[in-house]
Amino acid sequence: MHVKQTGIALLFSLAAAFAFAQNAAAPATLTAQDREFAIQQFQTTRGNFLKSIAGLSQKQWAFKPAPDRWSVAEVAEHITVAESTIFAGVQRALQSPADPAKRELVKGKDQLILQRLADRSHKAQAPEILRPTGRWATEADLIKAFEAARATSIQYIRTTNDDLRDHFFDHPVFGTLDAYQWLLFLSAHSARHTAQIEEVKADPNFPKD
After folding, report:
1. CATH number, position 146
2. How many structural domains does the chain have?
3. Secondary structure of residue 204 in the 3-state scheme
């Protein structure tokens, strides 16, 4: 009996040592607070966007406040294209070598991104790849594409062990951002343009039905 107990104890000890070694070798990842904050941002902005385009008629969907301004349909397309495009950029950044020395360059930018993107008084020109071109035939098709892309992002944030804080790529306005900040940017980007949709709907010439 003593031999059996000793053997079992040894097995538990070895298992514990193996688990410790695995954890020690695992890459640095998101804090629980960062992970939960990002998920909350993605879920909130998802709901707000879908609410902003719900129940629109075809006239309302296509209405343009001016020739040089986007319709709800065009803004919604821009949001949806950005979902997969920016997320793909984050994945590419993670293929480059980690560079912890750049952490100093991004300090304080988490909140800066959220604050600046919420400010619609500062306009920006969308890059060519994100401009609307009528990629989806119907509103339903667009929503389906958005929902799939957003679900991918949320699931990734919920489960990833990637070292998002040590991989970086540059933004033309914000400069160097880490991969986690790019995810915050993606969520805040949809919030910024959801506000743009509400501006279109508030136009005095917006169709009543």
Report:
1. 1.20.120.450
2. 1
3. coil
Across all residues in the chain, what is the average pLDDT? 89
Burial letters for 53-78: b for 16+ Cβ neighbours within 10 Å, e otherwise?
beebeeebbebebeeeebbbbbbbbb
What count of residues does the chain have? 209
Terminal CA-CA length for the chain: 82
Residue 119: per-residue pLDDT: 93
Question: In 3-state terms, the chain is what percent helix, strand and coil (to 5)?
Answer: 65, 5, 30
- Residue 122 confidence (pLDDT): 82
Which regions in the chain score pLDDT beneath 50? 1-27
Residue at 16 is within a domain: no
Classify residue 2: in a domain, yes or no: no
> Of 194, 197, 162, whose CA–CA distance to 180 is shortest?
162
CB 145 within 8 A of CB 80: yes
Q: Specify the pTM.
A: 0.85
Give me the domain span that covers residue 130. 30-201
Which residues on neighbouring strands pair with residue 177, listed in sequence order?
169
Measured over all CA atoms, what is the biggest interatomic distance in the chain, rounded to whole angstroms?
87
Structural domain contains residue 101:
yes
Tell me if 23 is assigned to some domain: no
Residue 113's SS3 state is: helix
